[in-house]
Amino acid sequence: GENVEQHPSTLSVQEGDSAVIKCTYSDSASNYFPWYKQELGKRPQLIIDIRSNVGEKKDQRIAVTLNKTAKHFSLHITETQPEDSAVYFCAAKGGSYIPTFGRGTSLIVHP
Amino acid sequence: KAGVTQTPRYLIKTRGQQVTLSCSPISGHRSVSWYQQTPGQGLQFLFEYFSETQRNKGNFPGRFSGRQFSNSRSEMNVSTLELGDSALYLCASSLAGEVYNEQFFGPGTRLTVL
């Protein structure tokens, strides 16, 4: 089955800095890669996603890049703000229609 | 549109007991998935139901079971509870569970096993 590795497990940055979270996947059949943000005590929510026929997608301060050859994808957050502090999960989805999640990255943005 | 709801939100049980959790998906969504979330382990997939049928199953023991009703509401049951079953149980609904269908999560049920 699919295996998704996510790094780092914890990321601490100063407000205004950029943050990058990386994920690798194992199943070449995976073709959809969503990212979820989970604030403390709240439900995970989709923040951005990318399909395998696209190499990069941006939405304001967040962007996701995908390298299908290397089987890795990354989340980039620019100009981080304290409200970006949360746990971020990457996921890979393909033939089974069930997403496999990474273990999460706890992002801490210091004011 | 109302979001995904789960009941109860918190539950405390003792070892050996059984528990039933409920999930009401977004209206019109036919796919419901269940996940177990524990610190450091991310979201572990339990099972997915579509049109009252279990379509996919994760790697959990048979003590974990579920079902889906004709109105797409879903329940999951855990029998003979163990301490390690303490976790946040999340359900998520999507239109049809297709590859590009977004999953919407419920608030979760926090289960504590003593």
For the report, how would you describe the main beta sheet of chain A? 6 strands, mixed
Uncertain ranges of chain A: none
Beta-strand fraction estimate of chain B:
over 45%
The whole-angstrom Rg of chain B is 13 Å
What spatial form of chain B do the alpha-carbon principal axes imply?
globular
Largest interface: A-B, 25 and 24 residues
Given helix and strand content, the structural type of chain B is mainly beta
Question: Could you report the average pLDDT of chain A, rounded to the nearest whole number?
Answer: 94
Number of strands of chain B: 11
Q: Gap between N and C termini of chain B, in Å?
A: 37 Å
Note the overall shape of chain A: globular
The oligomerization state is: heterodimer
- The average pLDDT score of chain B comes to 94
The sequence of SSEs of chain A as H and E is: EEEEEEEEEEE
Percent helix of chain A: under 10%
Describe the structure.
- The complex is a heterodimer of chains A (111) and B (114).
- With 111 residues, chain A is mostly beta strands.
- Helix content of chain A is 0%, strand content 55%.
- In chain A, strands 2, 4, 5, 9, 10 and 11 form a six-stranded mixed beta sheet that branches.
- Chain A is globular and about 40 Å long.
- The model of chain A has no long low-confidence stretch (mean pLDDT 94).
- In chain B, 0% of the residues lie in helices and 53% in strands.
- Chain B has no helices and eleven strands.
- Chain B is globular, with a radius of gyration of 13 Å.
- The model of chain B has no long low-confidence stretch (mean pLDDT 94).
- At the A-B interface, β4, β5 and β10 of A face β5 and β10 of B.
